[in-house]
Amino acid sequence: MDATAAEEDETRAAKRARLTPSTADLISGLDDDVLLRVLGLVPDASDAARAGALSRRWRGLWARVPALRFASRPEPLGVSGAGLERYAAVVDGVLARRARSGCAIESLSILYATGSDEHSLEHQPTMPPFADAAQLVIPGLPEPETERNLEQQMPASVYAAQRWMGYAFRHGVRSFDLDLRLPFVPPNLSWEHDDDYAEGKKRPAVLLDELPDPVRLETMRLALGGTRLRLPAAIMKFASLTDLSLERIRIAAGGAHLLGRLVSSASCPRLQKLRMKKIYIQAFYEEMSLEADVLSELWMEDVRVLMSLKLTTPRLRVLHIYKCSHEVLRVSAPRLEELAICQLGYPAPMRLDVDGNLPCVRRLKLCLRSHCRSNSRLSSYLKAENDTSLLLLEHCSSLTCLQVILHGPKLFKEDVNMIKSRVPHLPHVTSLTVNVSLPFKRHGYGASVGSLLTRFRNLRHLSLHLPFFCELGPPIKSPRLNHLCHHRYHWKSNDISMDHLEEVELTGLTGTDCELWFMKTMLASAKRLCKVAISFNPCCWQHPGKMDAFERMLVDEGMLVSHRDTHTLTCLELICARGCSVTNIV
């Protein structure tokens, strides 16, 4: 009996020994530094505070987290500023306690959003990936209801932003991200809604000139939801700032030169990366000069309205300018490696001045108009649209990768081809990406793409992205949707040589004969072709046998199908396919 009891005790002890390691709180045994790092990754401070319920070890630990993130739940669009005021009170309370505790905040992120989870930003519903950014967007009139919602929330957002920026500047925050996602109101074409006064009262503005110089700030993102920002008249020092992003901000009239000075070396001597998006200057014909000695990357999107933009950036490597309104663009950037200037839907710069050549540019993105009416009143202006792009091609003598947003379809017999007559041959370009813009029709892009391809003889990589054509609107599966065409000459009549082509990518196909003829033209001269990747528009009913026709054509050329599903097809040349299989096995 005793032996049996002893055996039972040993069995129970063994079970307890096996259970102990798996039931122990191993996380709480970690060092404070590790736990603080874990809590710093939590997306919202309220979640970090609730972590104290897990263990006594965690209680109060979140109050020492070096990285604090605040993220509101999206407020309904029709509410007043009361929701923002309640949210701001919570954030202010946490920041006040941290200030009293003496525990420094290294990184501070504050997000406030209006609207539903799906559309909390000003963004419109997105198009399919193959629709590309080559969409014609023209600013219009703001909706009265949206404008009223913005006016209701503007005072609370301005005062909250002022306090939070002041905290970050005064308390040595190294990384500061403020994102106010308010109802978006685009600038009125007449600008009558963008003055500093409304009904005799001065509109509220964030007063940057009343804040102290931030000593430790290294990265900052200010997305102010369309609020006004008053810039300092005197030089404000951001001695440690290396990364700056300014988004959705209105600048008072006369502020263009102040903005240029704010982001120049005089204020930001260490600035390396600068992004400006949706910056609206409330006056016409202002000049902005940016002189940055160590700046390496500059991204500008929808910055307007400027008479001239002057860039003096000796160490700049990346420059992207999208949809910015300026009449003159002056660039001095001898070390530039990547350049993109796309003004589709916006006035192109009347004059482009480049200081010397751009010998280091390897990657270039630009817009090209393929056709226009020779006797049109706008013909001189439309031809001037290409002048900027042609000048860039001349200055970029070492260019190897080119991305083109193609617009200006041929609509009439009298239309003049603006590519064959003006675009030079580009033998040094080995990679070409063509994004066809929305004004083209499903059967009408061939003449433009065909004439563009005649400018290249040494391509190794070619990508053609078709947009979500307007013809594909509902009902998409209409039996009347025409897949037949009679434009075989678009490809045959052009002297297209693809002797060195190795890879082809086609996206957004809709099942027309034009697409099949394009592939036949490529195969006629591309004897080194190694890979072809095709994807059809998933929102469009395609011709039942079109994918089969593509597959048969490629297989007849000695290629193997490596992948096929409902909308995509990938084929590899036999040697490449064997190489891929060996790689996968290894």
TrEMBL record:
Record-linked Gene3D superfamilies: Ribonuclease Inhibitor (3.80.10.10)
Superkingdom of origin organism: Eukaryota
InterPro entries, A to Z: F-box-like_dom_sf, FBL15-like, LRR_dom_sf
Name the UniProt record assigns to this protein: F-box domain-containing protein
High-level lineage: Eukaryota, Viridiplantae, Streptophyta, Embryophyta, Tracheophyta
